[in-house]
Amino acid sequence: MEYATLAAVYRSVEATQADTEKTAALADLFRDAGDLLPVVVRLARGKVYPRYAAADLGVSSSLTQAAVEKATGVDGDRIEEWWKETGDLGAAAERAVAERTQRTLASTPLTVERVHDTLRELAEYEGAGSQDRKVDAVAGLVSDADPAEARFVVRTALGHLRIGVGDGTVRDALAAAFEVPVAAVERAHQLTNDIALVAGTARDEGEAGLHDLDVELFRPVEAMLARTADDLEAGLADVGTGDTAYLEVKYDGARVQLHKDGDDVRVFTRRMEDVTAQFPDAVEAVRAGVDADRCILDGELVGYDPDTGDPVAFQRFSKRIKRKYGVEELAAEIPVTLHLFDCLHDGDSLLDEPLAARLDRLDALIDPIPGDIERARHQTPDGLDGAETFYREALSAGHEGVMCKNPAAAYTPGRRVDTMAKVKPTMEPLDLVVTRAKYSEGRRSEQLGRLYLACYDADRDALREVGRLSTGYTDEELAALTERLEPLIRERDGRDVDLDPAVVLEVEYEEIQESTEYGSGYALRFPRFLGVREDLAPTDADTHERVERLYEEQQ
Ligand code: AMP
User: Fold this and answer.
1) Would residue 94 count as lying in a domain?
2) Are residues 307 and 392 in the same domain?
3) What is the best residue among 227, 255, 416 to mutate for testing ligand 1's pocket, by most ligand atoms within 8 Å of CB?
């Protein structure tokens, strides 16, 4: 199929606000696509991969701009100007192609296959020279494009097609093209996350074929999501069970879906990214602690401090998700526990089973290894008082809050559902002054890793300490903070330093407690660094009065 045909459809879809017209244009395109249906359906959403492959094309705006410059000979500054004028690098590319100063001698018309395959290959370029190869590949497409084609090639490369087509439009268009119910298309998509597969099935096997599509190993399902409740009582009421709701600890880590077939285990994030290579310890835990040949489990992966056993802040844990090298060392530094809370497949799909039955399955197939793989801490119904005790215990163990769940609910992928509510304290962040600090031990011994924080007592024009901070910053942030604080050192005693109070930090925390340890009479529980408030002077910091008021409000 010529890319011009697709570009003409993009153009007409972009030009109309009416959903019915968008749907009709796409339905015609899908009906005429023949063998190219899978490719065309993905391209209609501006994608070249299924969601769960999560391959990132790694094409930045500056790379694309360089490619357009190379392909057209138009000066980069002018391209940038057009880009700024329209806010759309695609429109700038269109204009650059229209005004191009150089032309390839043997220009071949673009085909849909070529654009698709070229962009797919881009994602695999890695290492030295890969940026140049990407520029060349995009430039190759742009040089053979007419202005309208360039507009859409560039936007697709950047990952933003911007023609007002969402999953819903594609779903409606598929339903119209192949005369199948919209709901059947939607369900099939949520289960498979592969719109190309759904399209082919709708066309070749109709509604019955769509119904037969189900969860499959190594193809992640969209996670079921919770709504936020204002407080515990509301959470229990919201899930439709009152105080007979099932309660679970809400962990602060990464949602993971584990797919297991024999010894083959894969770990996917909530965004369907495959992070198996980053978590060899979690893979091992599943191999050792799950007694099932084939299953899909849902849970939260939480990083722990190996010395204290306390959960680490998400910021620190998130290093493990990103790290591609030195994985074993990092795993020793931040070990993980897998807290499992659902079973979606145990040889057969369990999605339509009630939660209580899925949990029975989960219990039957896990052999907990404390610290490595465990069932999420939970409590069966025990009235509001019991629920409150459970909630308080979860918070004091350093977790985020609790989840209230309706035990009769099926698993609905990809939705915020009414049958699951999250309850967690929402404390407003505080801006506090750093008054003292302490150099860390071990790896961070050059850094002021422990910072004492104070609020401002306006009545006395004095600073009064409310706690100390030692988590929430990245290594880079901590190094920058240390550099910022060292010139303020007034006195040093071993690793302890007194500082001129000049730096204000924004911090979040779990709760405020009464304390005799600090001058304010209060202590922040689990404070976490959010950022430096360069705009604030110490006297602009939050006041003692405000800390007092927040403490009262919590009671
Ligand atoms: P939020 O990210 O605030 O929307 O909260 C939902 C997230 O909480 C889920 O995506 C999970 O990653 C996480 N979570 C932690 N513990 C649980 C649990 N016991 N049940 C369900 N989700 C949980």
Assistant:
1) yes
2) yes
3) 255
250 is catalytic: yes
Q: What is the distance in A from the centroid of ligand 1 to the CA of 250?
A: 6
Q: Which domain holds residue 546?
A: 430-553
Which member of 70, 250, 405, 422 is catalytic?
250
118, 140, 158 — which closes off a domain? 158
Angle value at C-alpha 430, between 465 and 519, nearest 5 degrees: 15
Specify the pTM. Answer: 0.69
Q: Is the pLDDT of residue 422 over 80?
A: yes
Looking at residue 236, its amino acid is L
pLDDT score of 440 more than 60 = yes
Do 57 and 122 contact (CB within 8 A), yes or no? yes
CA–CA dist 164, 19 (Å, integer): 9
Question: What CATH number is given to the structural domain containing 534?
Answer: 2.40.50.140
* Atom number of ligand 1 nearest to Cα 223: 10
Query: Using one digit for the tens of pLDDT, what is the confidence trace for 188-231?
Result: 998 898 899 999 999 999 999 999 999 999 999 988 989 878 78
Match 């109309």 to its residue by tokens.
16
Return the structure tokens found at 182: 């919209």
Instruction: Give DSSP secondary structure letters for 170-190.
Output: HHHHHHHHHT--HHHHHHHHH
231 CA distance to ligand 1 middle (Å): 16
Rounded Cα gap, residues 347 and 360, in angstroms: 15
Structure confidence at residue 261 (pLDDT): 97
- 249-299 tens-digit pLDDT: 999 888 999 999 999 999 998 878 889 999 999 999 999 999 999 999 999
